[in-house]
User: Fold this.
Amino acid sequence: MAAPQQVPRDFYGEVQPTGWLGWILFAGLVMLLLGIFHAIAGLIALFNANYYLVTPNGLVVNVDFAVWGWVHLILGIVVAVAGWAVMVGQTWGRVVGIVLALLSAIINLGFLPAYPVWSVIFIALDVVVIYALAVHGKEARTLA
Assistant:
C-alpha cells in the first residue's frame, strides 16, 4: 500500500503550491475561452441560422437553431463564471466546472453535424478541463 502524498508546507505550516497549480489555472482559462466560444456560437445560431452546414433536421437532436443558440449562450455564460471561480480557488467552481465541461461535451456532440471543426475542438478542450479539475483540483485551494 502506497503512503499518502504529503502536501508541501513552508516553515509556518502554510500550504505551498506545486507545479500542478498551472493545470488548474490552465483549466480556468480554457473554461473562460470555452464560455466565450459558446456565447459566440449561440449568438451566431440566434442571428444567422444559415451559417451552419446543415438544417435543424440534420442535427443529432431535431431542434431549431434558436434553441441551440440560447443553450450555447446560457452555457457559455455559466462556464465563463465557473472558469473565473476556478482561477480564484473556489471549490464550487471546480465541481461546477467538471459538470459543465461534461455537459458541454455532450451538447457539442449533438451540434457536431452543424459545425464539425468547432465541435471537435470544444469536446477536446472539455476533456482537458475535466482532467485538470478532477486530478489536480486540490491544488486550487492554495489560491484561496
Q: What stands out?
A: DSSP finds four helices and no strands in the chain. The chain has a mean pLDDT of 79. The radius of gyration is 18 Å. Residues 28 and 83 are 4 Å apart (CA to CA).
